[in-house]
Design brief:
Number of helices: 13
Number of strands: 15
Helix content: 25-40%
Strand content: 15-25%
Order of helices and strands: HHHEEEEEEHHEHEHEEHEEEHHHEEHH
């Protein structure tokens, strides 16, 4: 006969959440040995922790996907490994049980593997931005979710990761289906676009992206883009994120083309000054300008590298919401997330962005290489361009003032490094004939401003 105490225990945990054996015994009016026997006979009760820290939770089914799923890693050499198991709990929380020690994943208040929602290390895999909205529309019917990504709940995201999570940022894969699909893709070079055909194919891929057709993963960011696998003809496959301008020669189209060229130049300048940045190049085809950035979370032989944005870290551990990167860097160093060198480079990158008029430096636009243990390495820079000068929502190109502020004394070292790089950036923009005359004038003025401030406050 089924134990009649099991439904009562499940109802108790559904209503009150995590409880100790002593709390269960008191609530149900039974002895602790009886609690132990009841729990042993209840397959949906999860034990969390050890000894006196042991607590119990009720597992929760998500649609028809069950309540527990393996979390895998596909590493840089295409090796697969199960990192642990994710479980859904009554009340909307989750528990992650690692297969081996993962101190970076289960740090601080999450040391027991309990999370109020999906774990922070999966945040960057959640659909977001331009591609994320298209991704959501494409999957909605299949997973029973709304077409509007803004209306998705945690379970919708979970189902998307389980059923269509084979090509998301980083190296983590949730569930067997996503792992199998990713492993097949890593081994299959067929279907990659020959580099020589980019000028022919990119305009069509841009049109497909704007229609919301399938064009790759759900990489974040609002700029129109698509994701492509490229065959350079040397036996490898390169994966790239491709942004593109509006078609035609209207002022807004010209400005976006200018800004994409700026992003490519910013990456070149940063690398020349010792800060890693995504490798990118410019292609003009079909009346559009394309910025092709090689994905740093993918390797040429089909492997992957870990990634976590500063936004995901901040949301989980700090709650700033928005903070200057040079202010956040010392805190990340103090708490052991990054070492002193990475903190210095993050601060330099933050000042560089400010000095090239990047007004879109939220915490989602910088990240770390997610690994098992801390400190984590700083990920290459990406999305670094003068967004202050983007066209207005109306499509008009409007004049906006740009002023260079001097650093405080304690900021001078990193500011000076960034200022040298920023001055070089603006001079290169001013000297690039493919960039419009109006923006070259802006660049010349910005370079002069930086030089004036450097002469008084720099090194």
């Amino acid at each position: 006969m089924p134990d009649p105490r099991i439904p009562r225990l499940e109802l108790l945990l559904r209503e009150r959440g995590l409880l100790t054996a002593r709390e269960i015994a008191a609530a149900l009016g039974i002895s602790q040995p009886t609690v132990s026997r009841t729990i042993a006979a209840a397959p949906r009760i999860l034990r969390i922790g050890r000894a006196r820290a042991t607590r119990y939770a009720l597992l929760r089914d998500v649609a028809r996907a069950g309540h527990r799923w393996p979390l895998y890693r596909l590493d840089a050499q295409q090796r697969t490994e199960q990192l642990g198991e994710l479980r859904a709990l009554a009340g909307g929380g989750f528990h992650f049980e690692p297969a081996r020690p993962l101190p970076a994943f289960l740090h601080g208040e999450f040391a027991d593997g309990l999370f109020p929602g999906l774990p922070w290390f999966l945040d960057d895999q959640c659909p977001q931005g331009f591609l994320g909205r298209a991704f959501a529309r494409r999957l909605a019917a299949d997973i029973g979710a709304p077409e509007d990504l803004a209306r998705w709940g945690t379970d919708d995201v979970l189902l998307a990761l389980l059923q269509h999570g084979q090509d998301l940022p980083g190296d983590l894969l949730l569930g067997e289906r996503a792992l199998r699909s990713a492993a097949r893709q890593a081994l299959d070079g067929a279907g990659a676009l020959p580099v020589a055909q980019r000028a022919e194919r990119y305009p069509a891929l841009a049109e497909a992206a704007l229609r919301g057709d399938p064009v790759g993963s759900s990489a974040g960011g609002e700029q129109p883009k698509f994701v492509v696998r490229l065959d350079p003809g040397d036996g490898t496959v390169r994966e790239a994120i491709v942004k593109f301008s509006e078609a035609g020669d209207a002022p807004a189209a010209q400005r976006w083309a200018d800004l994409l060229r700026c992003e490519a130049i910013a990456g070149d300048v940063l690398r020349a000054h010792g800060v890693a940045a995504a490798q990118s190049s410019i292609l003009v085809a079909g009346g559009r300008t394309f910025l092709e950035s090689i994905r740093f979370d993918r390797t040429p032989d089909g492997g992957r590298r870990g990634f976590v944005s500063l936004a995901a870290l901040d949301a989980a551990f700090h709650g700033h919401g928005r903070i200057d990167w040079w202010r956040y860097a010392p805190q990340l160093e103090r708490e052991g997330w990054i070492n002193a060198d990475a903190a210095r480079r993050l601060a330099v990158l933050g000042w560089f962005g400010a000095l090239i008029a990047n007004s879109d430096m939220h915490l989602g636009n910088a990240g770390l290489v997610l690994d098992d243990r801390r400190p984590l390495a700083l990920a290459p820079a990406y999305d670094m361009l003068p967004m202050l000068f983007r066209p207005a929502v109306s499509g008009e190109v409007v004049a906006r003032p740009f002023e260079v502020s001097p650093p405080l004394p304690e900021q001078r070292a990193e500011w000076s490094i960034a200022a040298r790089a920023a001055a070089e950036f603006w001079r290169r923009i001013a000297d690039t004939g493919e960039i419009g005359k109006a923006f070259r004038s802006i660049a010349a003025s910005a370079a002069a401003q930086i030089d004036r401030v450097r002469s008084r406050h720099g090194d």
